[in-house]
Amino acid sequence: MDEVIADTYGAMLDWLVDRHGARWSAEALHGRQIFDVLELEVADALRTAMHDGAFFADLPVIEGSQAALAAIAEHCELFVTSAAMEFPNSLGPKFLWLRRHFPFVDPLNIVFCGDKSIIAADCLIDDNARHFARFGGQGIVFSSPHNVDVTGYPRIRRWDEALAVLSEVFPAALAHSGVDAP
Amino acid sequence: MDEVIADTYGAMLDWLVDRHGARWSAEALHGRQIFDVLELEVADALRTAMHDGAFFADLPVIEGSQAALAAIAEHCELFVTSAAMEFPNSLGPKFLWLRRHFPFVDPLNIVFCGDKSIIAADCLIDDNARHFARFGGQGIVFSSPHNVDVTGYPRIRRWDEALAVLSEVFPAALAHSGVDAP
To answer: Cross-referenced InterPro entries, in alphabetical order (chains A, B) (predicted)?
Structure first.
């Protein structure tokens, strides 16, 4: 969910610039998690802000994600999962955000967890490759500035190429999508 | 979670007796879900009460569940899952309830979902056998008045027999539990 369909990364950068000025450039964050480049007290302040669930209530939708998930849902059984237990107060706001921006996702197909090894699925599209280590299906990296150097998995750089990437990884499932493999 | 470690069933019966008098006996509910025996308007009122997350904040802990899960966690990787998406306002209260009563459960091992077919586990202990239909592991029924007639799965009637049942179903995992198979 975060950094894949909800622009949490952008909201974190906005928060940093608002509170601490533009000390973090896209270049400084290239290939690194935001929390890994912050001084300890700034990281603590950002975590405190994120522990207030309101941080997650109005995140921008990542471009193209609604159309792409709607298209995927025509061919596959679609679940949306978020490692929301890291910020428990985000549970309610995240649920409402999904209902508002992705009304076609069955609420019973929303999964809030912490350790995604518990997910039984053929495919997991995630910005954090750490979730793939014990995942039983195929991990697909969704590009975010922090994961540009991650290799070893298929990659979706933008949602408008998602169906093409999926049709290459799962040719049978997407056989009738009308999308040629890239 | 509900009716397995949290006594939601008892709280629902208490709510019915408080609001509508003792019209529902244990006998009337034997083998049936509470919602299946209520008149439409009473069912609607109960659902409304449950959509207020406070309903789930102070549920009694089911007898023996804390000791049993602590013992299981010594031998197995333990996750707690709840079909909480049916009552989205329960998400926050359920998380806090688990932290309070089951502090030894890693919060990253809490999973809130709707359709438990998404759970990748060797074993699922649940009062609702409907969750076993598409579950990839072994379902184990935890006894509740509504499921007394369910057959086809191993059954745990009380938490003090849980390790014995598990050691029969998964002899390798529980080999060193010190519990003899029943």
So the answer is: 5'(3')-deoxyribonucleotidase, HAD-like_sf, HAD_sf
